Amino acid sequence: MAPLPSPLLADRFAPRCEFGRTDHVVVEADPPSTFKAVHDLDLTDLHGFLVTAAVRLRELPETWRSRRTPRQRTRLTINDLTTGSDWVLLGEQPGREIVFGAIGKVWQPIVKWVPLEARDFVDFAEPGYAKVVCSISVLPYGERRSLVTAEMRVVLTDPRAWLSFRRYWRISTPFVGVISRAILRTVKHSAETGGLR
Asked: 123 exposed, middle or buried (CB, 10 Å; 0-12, 13-18, 19+)?
């Protein structure tokens, strides 16, 4: 008899998903090496014209408002999210899954983020917000390969927020996909080359 599947840590923070996206990639490396690549992932190291365009487009309103280019980070790993970022590390299943999230009015040109601790994420219910949960998980795929999944789940705190987010999601979905696939490509390359660039 096959073992029962174990629950995802992301299920704890977003058990129901009103909007979401899931992407996968097969990596020619074992799960421990692949999970290390996930842990070491530097989000400032995502490359490609479309990735740059997606990030710059999101930064435009802030640039116009402040009349200066937003400060560019030189490094942003998953563990760095808790330092000077609106994202919070929600949890980790060592060797298997990392989950991070943020709460904000993401459909606004300049996003109003809610500063909070991971322990307060699940219970947050103030109307008018999107709760965004992102996870990167690694599973064995055959004897020597790994399956890496990048997933985004969005839960809205009230019907009005749902309507606002739905309009935003129609426009932003292609850009979310570009960034998700770039994350998976970067993890794959790092795991398969041992982190060499």
From this structure: exposed
Q: For residue 7, give the 3-state DSSP assignment.
A: coil
Which candidate, 173, 176, 157, 171, places its Cα nearest to that of 18?
157
- Rounded Cα–Cα distance for residues 33 and 25 (Å): 15
State both tokens at 149.
Answer: 């999944």
Is it the case that residue 51 has pLDDT exceeding 50?
no
Assigned CATH for 10-191: 3.30.530
pTM value is 0.81
What is the DSSP secondary-structure string of 81-117? GGSSSS-EEEEEETTTEEEEEEEE-TTSSS--B----
Q: With H, G, I as helix, E, B as strand and everything else as coil, classify residue 190.
A: helix
Which residues, in sequence order, are CB contacts of 12 under 8 Å at separation 6+? 91, 122
